[in-house]
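Trying the structure run again after the queue cleared.
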Amino acid sequence: MPEFPEVYTIVKDLDRVVKRRKFRRVEIEEGYKVLPENSKFKEAVEGKAAEGAEQIAKNIIIKLEGNAYINIHLAMSGQVLLKKKNKKLRWERVTFTLEPLQEQIPKQIQKDAPNTKENGKKETNSILYLAYRSIRMFGKVELLNQIQYEELKKKYGPPPLFKEVDAKKFHEIIRSRNTNIKNLLMDQTKIGGLGNIYATEALFRAQIHPESRTQNISLEKSEKLWRAVKEVTNEGIKNRGSTLEDELYVDIFGKKGTQQEHFQVYSREVCVKCKGKIKRKKISGRNTYFCKTCQELVEKEKTKEGLFDA
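Done. Tokens:
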């Protein structure tokens, strides 16, 4: 599933595209359902200008004029792809036809848009097509009004790069739920957008065992973990996300990310630090990788004269 860096990458590129455009047409594959209902969705979106794109946790939001929003959640296997020709791709569920308002397509966007056999030959006109693909159909495309948009934002905790969250606040978030630290990091109501890969990588970099109890995590360890969360998130953004062996994640131009080349523990067999064997274990149904030597199982909170007591 695309996590914060992957969604960030998609949204940043998408914002550059949709800002200059309006939705001329919406095509929905027969049998596929968007929310609230296909005909209402098309009626509300067609003819509307886009005001930009933004990210809410793992949600891709396109703001329309008139305080309406398109929300795209990719789930496990979704993709958003920019095309120059309206030739349907396999598993393409929704197609948005975008036409410019006044400005022409920026040259970089023209250069980067995919030009494959699936997408056809290059075109000289300025019409673009935005395709939502979903293999397993776990994702969704929905229309939100202003109230629903605000409610969506309230569902999630602060994002991994939220400047207003310092080590002390992060420690409070950790101690707000009695569970293992891996589950806490995956809880979208606590940290919005953090997922399995980046939580696993952050715990390794902070040298914390994923099954350590949240109530045993000291302020010192919280600070170290929060630095690791931000570090791995920024690194993922810099490398335009992680594309795994299934190659399901690509950016809107069809290009793979490269963060997978920088994994220190996820999907590895040997620890990059101690050269010991990496252990893989299911935690809440998700594969978790860790080094029993390098990652301490925190059994009791360590304090310094009470300074780090909750």
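The first helix runs from residue 4 to 18. Worth checking whether this holds up in the mutant runs.
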